[in-house]
Amino acid sequence: MIDTFKHKGQRKRLIEQLAQRGITDEAVLEAMGAIPRHGFVESAFRDEAYEDKALPIHNDQTISQPFTVAFQTELLKLKPKMKVLEIGTGSGYQAAILAQMGMKVFSVERDRRLHLEAKSRLEDLELKVELFHGDGSKGWPEKMEFDRIIVTAASPSIPLPLKEQLKKNGRLVIPVGTLDKQKMTLVTRINKNEWREERLQAFRFVPLVGQYGFKE
User: Fold this and answer.
1) 64: which DSSP letter?
2) Engineering a disulfide at 98: which of 10, 35, 65, 103 sits with its beta carbon 3.0 to 4.6 angstroms away?
3) Which entry of 64, 91, 107, 137 is annotated as an active-site residue?
4) How far apart are CA 11 and CA 23, in angstroms?
């Protein structure tokens, strides 16, 4: 993956924009400044890789807007070596950010082509991420429990399997709502049978399709 001085300069300007928009977690900004986003977008949109907007990828999916990636990641309140589950690998960009931050990353993707393409990109960058091809709305029960879970697709509700796969005091960040509009939701596990939910600002994501998401 070729990373030129031009790309690095574009990333620096993007990181400055994210900071101006209110992202304060230096570890998040540093990771996003290190990962070459242009390597995760389709070739037709490579010139737009460092604009703060979502871009289309295979099968009507998107690589999230950089601000959205930063906002979700900051909400996780990550600490080094935490075990993090991502639902919706997509291009692999969010997983790359988490791995760059030193997390133990597990990521699930239902689209096989996206799964394989993300695997190739992450290997090219020598980032260690465990990937699984399957229904992300079910989480990854065999690998539970997780310190943090991040969902990068819109869900009509908070899937119970994801809540159950959180450790005590674990945090789940997920956009919840209709197909047209969702509220970013922060879920914290209090104990075995209790979770606290906090609804934040509005976003718009592609749908989470699966048993506990939207129907195909």
Assistant:
1) P
2) 103
3) 64
4) 15
- The rounded mean pLDDT for the chain is 97
User: Quick check: 12 pLDDT over 90?
Assistant: yes
Alpha helices per DSSP H over the chain: 5-20, 26-34, 66-76, 93-100, 112-124, 160-164
> Any catalytic annotation for residue 64?
yes
pTM (2 d.p.): 0.97
Q: What angle do CA 151, 63, 9 make, to 5 degrees?
A: 120
Tell me the two tokens of residue 172.
Answer: 């789940």
Query: In whole angstroms, what is the distance from residue 187 CA to residue 185 CA?
Result: 6
Residue 140: closest CA among 161, 171, 159: 161
Residue 142 has pLDDT above 90, yes or no: yes
Rounded Cα distance, 25 and 34, in Å? 15
Output the CA–CA distances (angstroms, integers) from residue 214 to 17, 91, 204, 206, in the order listed: 33, 21, 15, 10
pLDDT digits (tens, 9 = 90+) for 60-87: 899 999 999 999 999 999 999 999 999 9
Structure tokens at 55: 């871009």
Give CA–CA dist 132/27, Å, rounded: 26
